[in-house]
Amino acid sequence: MVGKKFRVLSLDGGGVRGIYTASLLQQLALRISRFTGNSAESGLDLGGRFDLIVGTSTGSIVAAALVAGVPLEEVVNLYRTRSSQIFHSPQPVQRGGCLDKLRVALWALRHGPTAANQPHALSEALRSVLQEETMEQVYLRRGIALCVPSVDATTNRAWVFKTPHHKRLTRDNRYRLVDVCLASAAAPIYFPIHGVKDPDGGGQNHWFVDGGLWANNPVLVGMVEALEIAPPDAEIEVLSVGTGGAPKSNLLTEAQANRGTFGWKGGVDIVSMSLESQATVTAYLAKQLAASTGRVTLHRLQDSPVAPEEAGYLGLDTGTEQAIAHMEKRASRSTDLNYSDLTTGADSAERRMTLDMFSNLKTASKRVL
To answer: What is the rounded distance in angstroms from the CA atom of residue 101 to the CA atom of residue 21?
Structure first.
């Protein structure tokens, strides 16, 4: 617990754009650490500054790593070196030409029977940073609560994986962090539904789909959880971080409005539209809820504008070297934007809160599991 404050970090979903989130947090932590007199240049334990971290889909990967005490440099490197293997069959990059539309149609046709990507590379990448630790083990070791939204594919009901940060929470204790992330990141069409053998020995598989279908921006999940578990006299401080925003707007004609399966790219555009639209409206709802409670301070980091030449490289599954470079450049621009806002902008409770969250960071200790 951080004094009389209860701090929450909320991380959006967004596929390979998770490298933007991880890189933004890493760079901002280093910049503000220098600003506040910390001489450390790497390995900062940002997760240790929060009482609760919530993340959806790719955000669950960054969230689980922060809860586990994994330095953000390792998370950024995971995206940088493994994305092309994880998304081994990405949608063709689109620049608006007829040839691009043909490539997309062929991609949708090729992946009609099965998911575009298989989860083996993602599973191996996750094990390299999260190892075999369970939800219960990481909470007992670090004392940081974790919430990860997903969907129970057999009942079509929302499922939030939770560490045992309340005495009533025991259902998810034995789930491995790796499986929790795979369950939250199992985006329809992109990945298969993720099956997990009942960790309590029930014998059956539980099947999960991407939590972004209902909580791509999980800030409301984090706020509601905090309102339940935070001490009644604690101020609740929430920092929300996105994945760079929607890559572009669409201009529609009447002919395009009457689209069918191929017009929606086999359903891929439906998934993308769902993720982006609910992330946007959730940010607004969270702001209104925070204002009405009287005890919640909420700040969402700003995203730098998308340059026209970058739009085609910001797809959920565009893990090419060039796309990764564009996303890291955007993270650097967003770091400049937020650092300037936090250190030279008009004084406010939100700015003071965020600046303090990134200040006086300790170096992550070596994990012994």
So the answer is: 30
Residue 15 in contact with residue 187, Cβ under 8 Å? yes
CA–CA separation, 74 and 90 (whole Å): 24
Reading the block at residue 318, the tokens are 């565009």
Extract the tokens encoding 208: 């999960």
User: What tens digit of pLDDT does each residue of 257-293 get?
Assistant: 666 655 555 556 666 666 666 667 888 888 898 888 8
Q: Classify residue 243 by its DSSP letter.
A: S
Share of the chain above pLDDT 90, in %: 60
pTM beyond 0.85: the answer is yes
- The two structure tokens encoding residue 232: 């009644």
* Rounded Cα gap, residues 148 and 145, in angstroms: 10
- The span from the CA of 81 to the CA of 60, in Å, is 19
Number of H helices, E strands in the chain: 13, 8
Tell me, what's the pLDDT at 75? 96
As a 3-state breakdown, the chain gives helix, strand, coil percent values, each rounded to 5, of: 50, 15, 40
Phi, psi of 349 (to 5 degrees): -60, -35
